[in-house]
Each structure stands twice: as structure tokens, then as C-alpha cells.
Amino acid sequence: MPRNPQNPRLSNGERIREVCEITERLGKATSPMVRVRMVGPQTTSNAAKYCSRAAYQGLLIADRTVHPVLYQAAPDWRDRFAARSVKPEPIEDDDEVLLKPRYTGDEVLAMARTVPSSVWQLGARAMGA
Predict the structure, then answer these.
(1) How far apart, in whole angstroms, are the C-alpha atoms of residue 93 and residue 39?
(2) Mind listing the pLDDT tens digit for each residue in 79-125?
(3) How far apart (Å, rounded) are the C-alpha atoms in residues 129 and 119?
């Protein structure tokens, strides 16, 4: 189904899902066979593009020994399709050393008022010595 009823265009993910569902219904299919059953007018190259993208993602199995390429739905394509849209949760770093401030406000002000007299003094300050 299109995301917006006013706009009949499908997203790439929806097109890939459509290609996988058509291939699953047919058993084995070539991209021209899939194109005929796709929603809306599609070119053969567009159908081939979505079939090859689905095969690259492991959703379809491609037999490239024949011409045109013969596609078959992978047994677990629905699980793989659902898993590809799940975003991993960010890892929170609660290390105490990283969370504590390096300098207090007074130390920062003192460093800002002090002008280094040499490059060595500047480097020592940067290293935290």
C-alpha cells in the first residue's frame, strides 16, 4: 500500500516487499514476470533493479546460471525484511572517568588568564601536567 493515498509511488522498501511477495506467490520468477504483476506501470529495468536489490539483501535467491535471471523467495525473507528495519539501540557509556569534568570553572579561568611563555609550557598544559 502506498504511504500517501494522494501519491501512488511506493518507497524502495515497499517495492522490494512487493517483489518478494510476488515471487513467493509464483514460486520462481524472472524480473519480466514480476514486472507484469507489480502495482503501477513499471519498466523491465526497474523490476530487475528491485529483484537484484532483494537478492543482494538475502530476501530472494537468484539463479544466475540461466538468462534471464530466475528469482525465488528465500524461506525466511519475511523475518529478514522485518529485521532490516530494526535499528540497534545506542550503547550508553557510564564510565565514571568519562563522566566527571576534567577541570573546575576556577581552573579553566586560571588557565585562560595565564599566557604560556613557551611552546613547552603550552604542550604541558594540553597534556594536563
Answers:
(1) 47
(2) 888 887 777 777 776 666 666 667 778 887 877 777 777 778 777 76
(3) 14
Q: Bridge partners of 72?
A: 28, 61
SS3 29: strand
Q: Which residues contact 127 (CB under 8 A, 6 or more apart)?
A: none
- Per-residue H/E/C for 36-105: HHCCCCCCHHHHHHHHHHHHHCCCEEEECCCCCCEEEECCCHHHHHHHHCCCCCCCCCCCHHHHCCCCCH
Cell numbers given for 122:
603550552
Tell me what the pLDDT averaged over the chain comes to: 81
- State the residue for C-alpha cell 545506542: 90
User: Taking CA 38 as the corner, what is the angle to CA 33 and CA 40, rounded to the nearest 5 degrees?
Assistant: 135
pTM > 0.85: no
Residue 7, beta-bridge partner list: 4
Please list, in sequence order, all residues whose beta carbon lies within 8 angstroms of the beta carbon of residue 4, skipping any fewer than 6 positions away: none
32: closest CA among 15, 49, 12?
Answer: 49
85: CB partners within 8 A, 6+ apart: 13
